[in-house]
Design brief:
The protein has 371 residues and is of the alpha+beta class. Helices cover 48% and strands 13% of the residues. The chain has a single domain, classed as Orthogonal Bundle (Cytochrome-c3 Hydrogenase, chain B). The chain has a three-stranded antiparallel beta sheet. Strands 6-7-8 form a three-stranded antiparallel beta sheet.
Length: 371
């Protein structure tokens, strides 16, 4: 008769540096193997959805910044699209181009944090410094435009808070020229590093059907080989005007859908974002970015759902209007929250050290999970 060890419960967090925020993981172990992982969330809850009921539509925009605070521009983007859909409001062409440029710069900045911190999780510190060095250049562009580096309140209903600085497009093109070789450098330093591959390949494998059943979106879904991206499959704003590819996981270094695939999809997405920004710079028209901003926002009674391709997946806003200046209800589909659901499944059968490798690969932000 085979002897069985007793199960042991190990608490990881909520002050653990590799839990990417205030997250407690209850790890159930049998010997050194993981039987189950139960995430405990709610430490960062700020009542975002309840606050919205007491705010006017424009006043909510700064609150959206504070959900996924590493992708604040895109939080703004999704919310204003939802309100404009409720108002049946068309925004100027120049505003659309500015939003796409800012959104894709934000995607790169968000992915740089994900990739750099993932390197630290695995034990590689130098890529972290390189990624944050390059992210600073994007934050400089944001600061030049709206004065802020983290929480922007930049995209307004009907427009944006500031037009572009006269040097913005030139400096953005300079960043594109600077950053393309840095992606190659990152690949040589981290992506194709033998130790990094051994720590991430065949770890936390997420099959495509499981990903779909759990409602996983974004790079985590595409890492499993599913070519689904709202910018292509349900275009919003002016994304249908740009030529770009949707990177997916192919299992080059292991099984399709493993932690390395999820990581490398983000690396490739940065290249595609550069392509979109470059096309937008060439096409952007002149115009008044303030002309469509309403003096007072009072939508008719009704409800609307609008979704965008946030750096972490599908970000959706469901808004119910009762015809007053404040929304009756705002519900957010937060991609980090949905993506976190599959975490326990990904960890089963792995070792304790692999918990960190899997958690870093799904790229969560607790501000968005808890809201």
């Amino acid at each position: 008769m085979a002897l069985k060890t007793e199960e042991m419960v190990l608490n990881m967090g909520p002050q653990h540096p590799s839990t990417h925020g205030v997250l407690r993981l209850e790890v159930v172990l049998e010997g050194e193997l993981i039987v189950d992982v139960k995430p405990h969330i709610g430490y960062l809850h700020r009542c975002f959805e309840k606050h919205c009921e007491a705010m006017t539509y424009p006043q909510i925009i700064p609150y959206t910044d504070r959900m996924d605070y590493l992708a604040s521009m895109y939080n703004n983007f999704g919310y204003v699209i939802a309100v404009e859909k409720l108002l049946d409001l068309k925004v100027p062409e120049r505003v659309e181009y500015i939003r796409v440029i800012m959104g894709e710069l934000q995607r790169i900045a968000s992915h740089l944090v994900a990739l750099g911190t993932y390197g630290v999780d695995i034990g590689a510190f130098t890529p972290f410094l390189y990624c944050f060095r390059d992210r600073e250049k994007i934050l400089d562009l944001f600061e030049m435009t709206c004065g802020a580096r983290l929480l922007y309140n930049y995209m307004w209903v009907g427009g944006v808070s500031h037009d572009l600085h006269p040097d913005f497009l030139r400096l953005t093109q300079d960043f594109i020229d600077y950053f393309r070789p840095k992606i190659v450098e990152l690949n040589n330093l981290l992506s194709f590093n033998k130790i990094f591959i051994e720590r991430t390949a065949n770890v936390g494998v997420l099959p495509a059907d499981t990903a779909i059943n759990y409602g996983i979106t974004g790079p985590n879904l595409r890492g499993s080989g599913v070519k689904f991206d709202l910018r292509k499959d349900d275009p919003y704003s002016i994304y249908d005007r740009f030529d770009f590819e949707i990177p997916i996981g192919h299992g080059e270094k292991g099984t399709t859908g493993d932690s390395w695939d999820r990581y490398f999809v983000r690396v490739q997405e940065m290249e595609q974002s550069l392509n979109i920004i470059q096309q937008a710079i060439k096409q952007i028209p002149e115009g008044d970015v303030f002309e469509a901003i309403p003096k007072r926002i009072k939508p008719p009674k009704g409800n609307v759902y609008a979704r965008v391709e946030n750096p972490k997946g599908e970000l959706g806003y469901f808004i119910i209007s009762d015809g007053s200046l404040n929304p009756f209800r705002v519900k957010v589909r937060a991609p980090s929250f949905v993506n976190m659901e599959v975490f326990g499944e990904l960890c089963k059968g792995h070792l304790v050290a692999d918990v960190i490798a899997v958690l870093g690969s799904i790229d969560i932000v607790l501000g968005e999970i808890d809201r």
